[in-house]
Amino acid sequence: MEAKEKVVIWYKDADNSIIANFFDAYRLFDDVYITLFQGSGEFAAIGTLKPSNLYKNCAEIDEIITTFTNRFDVDKLINKFNSLTAADLLRLIEAEGVEELW
């Protein structure tokens, strides 16, 4: 996968039509990405991606490690991720309000 991926979330409605929403994801390290879900309930999720079987040039969420419910400086996180210590990352998680953490 690339440093930036297009992520698709799709489902079939009552008429069996496919509804798809597309989002941007940025690699943090290895196969771990941060996906930015924009819209009325903006949030971000850190997790792994897998290739989409339905949309050939897109990825889908594979596993979610954690989600952030508050708005935060995503550009700073992406650009400075490799210089963060574990303590820095834990402080960020605590400060931003984590919805899930496995």
Q: Low-confidence parts lasting 5 or more residues at pLDDT below 50?
A: none
Q: Largest sheet, if any?
A: 6 strands, antiparallel
Number of helices: 2
Task: Indicate the overall shape.
Answer: elongated
Tell me the structural class: alpha+beta
The proportion of residues forming helix, as a percent range, comes to 10-25%
Query: What's the Cα radius of gyration?
Result: 14 Å
Count of domains: 1
- Termini Cα gap: 23 Å
Classify the beta-strand content into a percent band: over 45%
Task: Provide structural commentary.
The chain is an alpha+beta fold. The protein has one domain. The chain contains two helices and six strands. Strands 1-2-3-4-5-6 form a six-stranded antiparallel β-sheet, covered by helices on one side. Strand 4 (43-51) and strand 5 form a beta hairpin. The chain is elongated and about 50 Å long.
Blueprint (SSEs and pairs):
Layout: E1 4-12, E2 18-29, E3 32-37, E4 43-51, E5 59-68, H1 74-80, H2 86-96, E6 98-101
Antiparallel strand pairs: 1-2, 2-3, 3-4, 4-5, 5-6
